[in-house]
Structures are given as C-alpha cells and as structure tokens.
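OP here, attaching both records as promised.
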Amino acid sequence: MEPIRHALIAVSLLLVVIVIGTVGFWYLEEGITTYLDALYLTICTITTVGYGDITPHTSHGKLFATVLIISGVGITLYVLIEIMESVLEGRLSKAFGIAKVRRGVAKMKNHKIICGGGRTGTVIADEFRNDGLEFVVIEHEPEVAKGLRRKNLPVVEGDATKDEVLIEAGVERASGLVSTLPSDCSNLLLCITAKEINNNLELVARASSEEAAKRLYSIGVKKAIIVEEIGGRRLARSLTKPAIVDFLEFATKSGETSLESLKVERGAKIANKRVKELKIKEKIGAIIIAILRDEKVISNIGPEDEIREGDTVVVIGNKESLNKLEELEFS
C-alpha cells in the first residue's frame, strides 16, 4: 500500500500544478482567450516541449512560465519515477518472492503440503509453524495467495490437482499432504494425483459426508475429516462438558503442556514391553494416556498394559519432556 500512496500523492501534485498553471496563464496572458489555450500552454511548459503558436508575451507571464517550468518539470519527473517505482516494486517483489519460495521448496525434504489456503488451510499452516514443521501451501486464487505471502507463508500459486503444481511444491519428496479444497471431487482428484506421484505420501483430506470419506479411504487416504461434524461435536461439548474442551485446548495449544503421538515401528526397542518397564514418567516426565491399536482406542492405561508393534502411543507432557521422546526409540 505504501508505493500506491506515494504514487497518488505524486499524481495529485501534478494535477495541482496543471490547475495552477492553467488559471495563472488565463489571468496573466492577454493573448489567452480560452481555458483550452491556457491548459495547452501549461502542458507545453511543464513537459518542456517548447512553445509553438502560443507563447507568453507579458513580463508577468514570462516570470510565471519560468517558475512553472522549474516546479512543473521537477514534479512531472517525480510523478513518473513514483509510478514506475510502484509498478516495478510490486512486480519485482512478487517475482523475487516466488523465486525465493521455489529455492526454499527445492531444498525441502519430508515436508508437509497444504492444498488450499483458505480459513482451514491458514489454521493448519499456523499449527505447522508452531510445531516447527517445514511446509508449503498451494493456493489457486491470486488474492488469497497474496494474503498468505504477506504472512510470510511459503506459497505455490496454481491448481493443486495439476501434476506440475504438485511437483513444484515438492510432492515427490514430501511426507504428508493435507487437502482442504472446497469440493469432494477436487479433494478426491488431488489425492489420486498425489498418490500417483508419491505412493508413500500420507494423505489427510477434508470430506463433506460419510460417503465422500469412504471414497477417500478407498484410494489410500489416511484420514478423512468431516470438518462440520467435528465442529458440531466441539460446540456441543463446549456447552455440556466445557472443562474437558478447555483442557484439550490447553493441552494442544499451551507452550507448557502438549500432546504428542508416536507410531511404534517394526523392530522398535519399546515394542512388546509393558508400560511399567519403560518408565516413561521417570525418564522424561511424560505420561501415556492412550494407545491406538487396529482403529481402536485403549484408554485408562495401566502399568501392565503392553505396547506392541504398529501401535500409536499418545503421550502428554511439557514441551521439554516430549522433545526427549526419541530417547525411547519408537523406531
């Protein structure tokens, strides 16, 4: 907005000079009979084109023309410089910004891709940024992409369902992709296209219904989220069980306490061991609150519960404790 403001000020100054010149010649020069002649003489003066059939004849007119030439030429040059600077600054900054993002994305590995930079995509980007994850956003709408760039988010502008756009976002090197496009068809096409390029890509997609979610699961999507359904449940629980909602929000957003989930890979040293043998609380100060196994949630974890290969362990603790989870050798 700053370059545009400067350009508007410059154009306003030029208009003021033209008005003053026109009125001045009209009153000072006897040979000027119309406002058009006065305007013509003003334009010839400030552009330094020179005088032809109309010239100042009186001493007052000549003095006025001298002042007008000095001020008019200076302001005209200022206007031209400001307009050129505004145009070039906008285009160059965008070009340099795009080139910088491309260089950054080319270096990324195991990063995340967010397809759709609307309200949902922006929230996801904020979460990834807070978690210190590398990511890039693909957005089709130029105005939305411009807003994301203003937030210093890495953006690839284009249609996320196109191979070349996904490749520009580094999909073949990415570890995960979130599809938040507005229609189920677009999300389905995007996931199919992404899987064809990178079969190991973990996909999470937005769905509008259970039927759409089933189709997404059938092509290998890890999780299909019905955003409206989750939002409705949270609204209901905010009224009926506000303390639980507040705790979960604190646990996921607080800088002191957080939730983390880790997959127990095949051959991991913690596999086939009971919770009490791991001594997670004693070693890092975190607590296992749930185990996800075969699409089932095991809660009320006790010391005798066993952790197996393929389990996903949900742990709660402070940031410092969760940073030490690698010491437990889940993989």
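Record two, same layout:
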Amino acid sequence: MKKQAYLNTTATCNSRITAIRDTMEILSGKWKFHIIGTLLQSDKMRFMDLIREVEGIGAKMLSKELQDLEMNHLVSRTVLNTKPITVEYQITEYGRTLEPIINEIANWGTEYRKSIYGSTKQEK
C-alpha cells in the first residue's frame, strides 16, 4: 500500500515557500552570488574591474546580471561625469543583508571541499 504524500498547505508554509521562491528567483543563475560576493569585498568597482574579478563571465552577461541586481535594489550604479564615461557599482545597504548568507555558503563550500579532497586547496 502506497503512502499518500502529505502536503503542508498552512498559510505559514505557503508564505515560506513563496519567500524561498522569490529569493531563488532574484539570486538565481551562475553569476549573481559571485558578483555580490565580489562587491561585498570592496567599496566600489568599475565594470572592467568586475570583469577581471568574476572569472569566466562575459561583458554581456555581467551587464545583464548587474541590471537585474540593480533592479532588485541589491546593487547601485553610479555614472561619473568623466570622459570617457565611467560607471561604478556598489552593493546597497539592502544588498549587504546578504553578507551572512554569502559567508555561510563560503563556509559550507570550504567544509565540503575538506570532506571531499581532504584540504581547502583549490582543485580544478
């Protein structure tokens, strides 16, 4: 006899699932955590600095991801009055609320690497 799956449909559960879905939608993709983590480590960064720091990302993808993060109030964009025009990106105060989550993900990754490889060295 098969057991019936139990679905918790309480308002609290539905609210939590919605919040998780929203968070995953905002932070989804290969690059957003890397971009946010990079910006958390510095005050302001120019576009080309981010290209160099976020290894493997292309200019078009970085531009798209920065637009998404800016739209969600996690990153601010400042256009400086220079020639040629310079653009700086900075994590917002609201974006800084992700710092403990990013730190925990980094800690988890370090521990995972230790459990698999027996050390924290970078394996490629």
